[in-house]
Write a structure and sequence with these properties.
The chain is an all-alpha fold. The chain is built from 13 helices and no strands.
Length: 335
């Protein structure tokens, strides 16, 4: 495309749009209609320039012009409690629901990996010897040992805050680092499953696997589900880099990235709940069946939240992204 010819052909429209924007508060009905039409045309021009002849100065000028026109046409809007309610009842659960084809297989394969590692450690004494000295392992796995006292090693409130911070950081890393083709996400998953597998293997070799499961299941079901959702979303973001689908790579990454940011906020809330369970329920004096029941109930509530509320919102067209009025307009691309 000859950029000079293109600018010459459309400069008058851009100047007219700028003129209308300067008097936007005193427009007649015809002028308002003209402003909307020119805004739509300028947005198209910007998209064409960006894709065909990306001149930095012209792109910056048109971007500023389109942004001003957009603010005038759509109006400015402040965040409100309505936005928070929409996010919690539609946006977040719909985003989790839409990414289920990524995080559900991630959860299944990761759980199988943890079980396999646990079986390998539990049935091979030489592997246990490589992990630590026999005396140290006995100290960890004995009644009242480190595996049991870990959950009551600090005051419940501070322990819950610490756990929440660590898990939220791990989930955020999965979401952010997913853009690097998902490779860092796989490593974070492996480290988490390795830790779980070591616990399974060592406690099962000591004949105390039931105690270990009674300690990890109350909070671990919801906690690991949140990590799996974050990991699946990160892997999905990484795959978008490879295959953006019918839109441009930049547009696809922007959409997935915005959804990932919202996912991080929602998962922080989920991990806050699991942190409370880990801080107050896991080390409590409740019988094992009661503690596990609380953990299972929390997990089922979350899954119902995702599959009922999220599924309904997704079928209604919710993307887990910003509202359409807050997203940048983009041209469709041919399949």
């Amino acid at each position: 495309m000859d950029l000079d010819v293109y600018v010459t052909a459309h400069r008058a429209e851009w100047e007219r749009l700028d003129q209308l924007l300067r008097k936007s508060g005193r427009l007649t009905g015809a002028e308002a209609d003209e402003l909307v039409s020119l805004y739509q045309r300028a947005a198209t021009h910007l998209s064409i320039v960006q894709s065909s002849a990306p001149d930095p100065m012209l792109t910056a000028r048109l971007t500023q012009l389109v942004a001003r026109a957009r603010a005038t046409v759509t109006g400015t809007r402040r965040s409100s409690w309505r936005d928070a309610a929409r996010f919690l009842t539609a946006g977040f659960p719909a985003a989790v629901y839409r990414s289920r084809h990524w995080w559900v297989p991630t959860a299944v394969l990761s759980t199988l990996l943890a079980v396999l590692i646990g079986w390998w450690i539990g049935t091979h004494p030489e592997v246990q010897a490589a992990i630590g000295a026999p005396a140290d392992l006995r100290e960890m796995t004995r009644p009242g040992g480190q595996y049991e006292t870990y959950y009551s090693s600090n005051p419940a409130a501070s322990f819950a805050a610490q756990v929440w911070t660590n898990n939220a950081k791990a989930a955020a890393m999965c979401l952010v680092l997913g853009a690097f083709l998902g490779i860092p996400v796989l490593w974070i998953l492996f480290v988490n499953m390795l830790n779980v597998g070591v616990g399974i293997g060592l406690m099962s070799s000591a004949g105390r696997l039931d105690v270990f499961l009674g300690l990890i299941l109350p909070h671990g079901l919801l906690e690991l589900t949140a990590v799996f959702v974050a990991a699946g979303t990160g892997l999905r973001l990484g795959w978008t880099v490879i295959d953006p689908g019918p839109t441009t790579r930049r547009a696809a990454l922007a959409e997935r990235g915005r959804a990932a940011v919202g996912m991080a906020i929602g998962l922080a809330l989920v991990l806050f709940v699991s942190g409370l369970i880990e801080g107050f329920v896991t080390p409590s004096g409740l019988p094992t069946w009661a503690r596990i029941t609380i953990g299972v109930a929390a997990e089922l509530l979350f899954l119902a939240y995702v599959y009922v509320l999220g599924g309904r919102a997704a079928r209604a067209g919710e993307q887990g992204d910003l509202e359409e009025a807050d997203r940048s307009a983009r041209l469709p691309t041919a399949a």
